[in-house]
Amino acid sequence: MANEDAGEGRLVLILAPAGRDAQSAAAVLERHGLGTRSVASVAELAALVDDRAGAVLITSEALYRADAQPLVDALHAQPTWSDLPFIYLAPPRVGSPQRLAMRGMLPRRISNAMVLERPLSSDSLTSAVDWALAARRRQFQVRDQIGELARQAEQLRLSEEALKQAQGALEERVIERTAALHAEMNERQRAQEALRQAQKMEAVGQLTGGIAHDFNNLLQGITGSLAVLQKRVEGGRTDDMGRYIGSAMKSAYRAAALTHRLLAFSRRQPLNPRPLQANPLVESMEELLVRTLGEGIALELRLDAGLWPTLSDANQLESAILNLAINARDAMPDGGRLVISTDNVRLDGRERGVALRPGEYVCICVTDSGTGMPPDVIERAFDPFFTTKPMGQGTGLGLSMIYGFARQSEGSCHISSELGLGTSVSLYLPRHQARDGHDELEAQDKAEPAPAASVPAPHSGEVVLVVEDDEVVRGLVAETLAELGFSVLQACDGPSGLEMLRSHRRIDLLVTDMGLPGLNGRQMADAARVQRPQLKVLFMTGYAESALAAKGFLESGMAMITKPFTIDTLTACMRDMLLSPPPSPSQAVPLLPQ
Q1: DSSP 587
Q2: Is the pLDDT at 141 greater than 80, yes or no?
Q3: What digits encode the pLDDT tens for the residues 194-242?
Q4: Among the residues of 81-121, which ranges form H helices?
């Protein structure tokens, strides 16, 4: 029983009751510098299973007919990290089945065991014990780590308790500060709302003032010319009447153009979008642009040969490019260079200054080398009636009309500019994907339109129903059609027009306003086509928001004319409608339940 003062986990317990085995093993291990303790029974061994024990050396005969329960109980009482190593010395020259039977004598609670066959050398014994003690040391390291974690957890618990106390006070301060911030934010919001309201009223005042100024001038030209005509007619003078009629008509056309620009800015103008190639359109405008720009400005076209088609109104796009060129010319009073370029672009939604959803677009860019614009002018450039030109030299509706046209075409417009270096205006229009390869691109030659031919005289008593809630317009249209030889029926609203259409009267053509009381023009036409599937319909409109709500508004056998229109325009549309084939019954889709 020598060297029992070994440190924690360094004591080897020896249970070898036969002969001098225990003394021999103890002597070998003590020479190796290890502490040992020999015991005489399993019960005595169980009593020594504690933190000092590093390994157990036990022989097979020690367990023969012995009660191992005290040892099992002692091992069960050890902490979870403890797994005391056992070195089991088996008898010599024992076969494999007998060796397995001998191993089975060890209690099942012993899982960390090494079996050695006797006789064995001192080196073998010391190596096995060193392995067992190293394994035991690792267990104590785990114990220490578990203890440290427990200590840290306790410190954390105490810190957390000190923190749910500090946090309570902090939460009170946060609640107080949050309430103060809410009050401050509410005050700022009220101030911002007041500022926005003031800005809105300023914009409305500017808008209405600009409209009133321009329309007063136009109305003066109309009413003044009509007043002179009235006096001359009353006096029996009919000479030179054409000049005053022409002046009144010119002012009326300018008023119509102003209204059209306002509708474009508010995205309410009726468009006629068709598959379009922008390059031929730009090329066809080259001569017009050169004449417009003058000799001091060089024009350069940089057109992408592989430009995608787009879906757009060709006339509106041409007007937008011309307006941009005129603005660029005015920004280069001393001459310069104007570049019109086209490109295919793919936007991912992260581009600065371009308010468009991700997708593929055709970009038409007009760039000048003029005076440029400061940031505050760029910010207001698309506002209606905003202009930097002197009074009387610009309406301030050019860029706003272009912006409205772009947004109405599901695109956008972007300005980039630097003072002294020039301005670039980019017009983005969505790429058009042809459906089944059957879409035909709009002809781009821009030939002069053929003069309006007269409507063929009715040869079989054609009947036209005119539905218009404005009495003056309804009377003028009905009178015009009657002078052309048609039988004309009239209705003042949608329900009365539909009542006529559901009757058994002969009606060859429906001419209707888009916005009607009761039923709008499209609803009335769709309901009528249930009974009259081949009915042709000519829509008149000055405000076509409903027509623009969905693509493909006009079906087969339908056309649209924009107010105000001339008699020649009306007769041309009548000619096209009467000469066109009737719509297919399958293409009439009712929108109202019957």
Answers
A1: G
A2: yes
A3: 776 676 666 556 656 666 666 666 776 777 778 778 877 888 887 778 8
A4: 96-103
Give the tens place of pLDDT for each residue, 451-465: 444 445 454 578 999
> In sequence order, which residues have a C-beta less than 8 Å from that of residue 137 and are 6 or more positions away?
9, 54
Residue 487's alpha-carbon distances to 44, 249, 458, 473, in angstroms, are: 129, 29, 9, 17
- Give the pLDDT confidence score for residue 395 in this predicted structure: 45
pLDDT digits (tens, 9 = 90+) for 311-334: 888 888 888 898 899 889 988 989
CB atoms within 10 A of CB 205: 10
Q: Which of 136, 127, 156 lies closest to 83 in space, CA to CA?
A: 136
DSSP 296: T
Give the Cα separation of 212 and 227 in Å (integer): 21
Partners of residue 312 on adjacent β-strands = 274
**Residue labelled with tokens 């005969």:** 61
- SS3 at position 118: coil
How long is the chain?
Answer: 594
Mean per-residue pLDDT, 408-428: 88
HSE-CB at 488 with a 13 A cutoff on CA atoms is 20
Q: What are phi and psi of 552, to 5 degrees?
A: 70, 35
Q: Tokens in use for 464?
A: 């036209």
Within 10 angstroms of residue 333's Cβ, the number of other Cβ atoms is 10
For residue 320, count other CB atoms closer than 10 A to its CB.
28
CA distance 37 to 2: 7
Q: Nearest Cα to 306, choosing from 347, 280, 344, 339?
A: 344
Q: Which residue has the tokens 């290890």?
A: 34
d(CA 33, CA 36): 10
Can you tell me the distance from the alpha carbon of 481 to that of 483, in angstroms, rounded to the nearest whole number?
A: 5
Sign of the CA dihedral 546, 548, 553, 559? positive
The two three-digit tokens of residue 337, written as one number: 């260079």
Instruction: Say if CB 336 and CB 375 are below 8 A apart.
Output: no
Q: Is 570 helix (H, G, I), strand (E, B) or coil?
A: helix
Decide if pLDDT at 445 tops 70: no
**pLDDT tens digit string along 356-408?**
788 899 999 999 999 888 887 877 777 655 565 544 444 444 677 788 788 87
Q: List Cβ neighbours of 551 (8 Å cut-off, separation of 6 or more).
A: 273
CA distances to 171, 187, 464 from 175, rounded to whole Å, are: 6, 18, 74
Burial class (CB in 10 A: 0-12, 13-18, 19+), 578: middle
The pairing of strands 86-90 and 35-39 is unpaired
Tell me 181's DSSP state. H
Give CA separation, 32 vs 11, 29, 36, in Å: 13, 5, 11
d(CA 143, CA 203): 79
Query: How many Cβ atoms are within 10 Å of 471's Cβ, its own excluded?
Result: 10
